Amino acid sequence: MTGTDEYLRLGPDYYDNPFPLYAQLREEQPVTRVITPLGLHVWLVTRYEDARAALAEPRLHKDNEQFQALMEARYGPSRRGFEDSINAHMLAADPPDHTRLRKLVGKAFTGRAIAALRPRIEEIAAGLLEAMEAGPDRVDLLDAYAFPLPITVICELLGVPTDERDDFRRWSNTLLQSGEPEAHQAAAVSMAGYLTGLVDARRLAPSDDMLGAIVQASEDRDKLSRQEAISMAFLLLVAGHETTVNLIGNGMFALLRHPEQKAALEADPALIPNAVEEFLRWDGPVHLATVRFTAEPATIGGVDIPAGEVVMVSLSAANRDPSRYPDAEALDVRRQGAGHVAFGHGIHHCLGAPLARLEGEIAFRALLERFPGLTLDADPSELAWRPSTLIRGLESLPVRLR
Q: What integer pLDDT is reported at residue 322 of this predicted model?
């Protein structure tokens, strides 16, 4: 890190605790070139103000075809194509395609539509907690609660059966984690085959759920292609549960290591919505935002980035920037943490953020009320974090309920 022509290589330990590195980079090289654990050469943005600017910068593009061509030109064919079949969605698109795709599903995620889901989400949470209470005292909180809650909600919202959710979870984990291209390709093929079957079934038997609406839009080629319909189903299913799984998991892991904060929530449950925002800020479910690239030169944080470069914004680093949040490294459920970028910023701000917030609020409230004696059943230093630059989440969270 002594010269401007050098890259900082991110090692495997980067996944476990990136925050000391981020503190150093914010201070010394807030926009710098790094090599990811998968060997990609990218520009990494770590300061809050620079992150917000980059997330809203129109010269940073996301079009999948252009990005895949850039990857192929730089790294060869092995970096191209393994996710094309499910990557024609709004998170991998620029306007006007992004605008068209987002508008098609926007109505399902309005504040009013999400608020109407509260009774059903509370019912799902209660059922999971009852099953936990009837079972063994030691559980993996991710398996027993944090995963089944949001996957059930999003499957019901879309109208997708939950009988294959374990397969879906395995494919999703593979696609979102660092690993060999061959493993990603196999998971993408399985995921695409599964979703193609769902989309084709809706074409034969229309329904009034969200997936049915997506398929109906695909009948009009000016609105949505068949590949776009499959990709949109992929995005909503994956993004619709991954953020909440890790919001619940990371948030509870944080509380269990900060008993005074847990006690504050148990004493005053009205703090829980505010606490959800603090969990999102302090150790949110998305680590680095989805990739962007410069189709033309751009300047971020005073650093000139040439055309044809990949830019990654660290949401985790930005949210602990002390210039935005005093005592940013501390967890404080009473903090007024508005303005964090855990769900992104700009036109690609997470469409499902209101749903994730509602699920998080219900999940924490119900869990703390049902199991006030909940404790961590492992040495925190021994728990493994998922090997992903995109997802910030634990691989397991063993707890004792009483």
A: 98
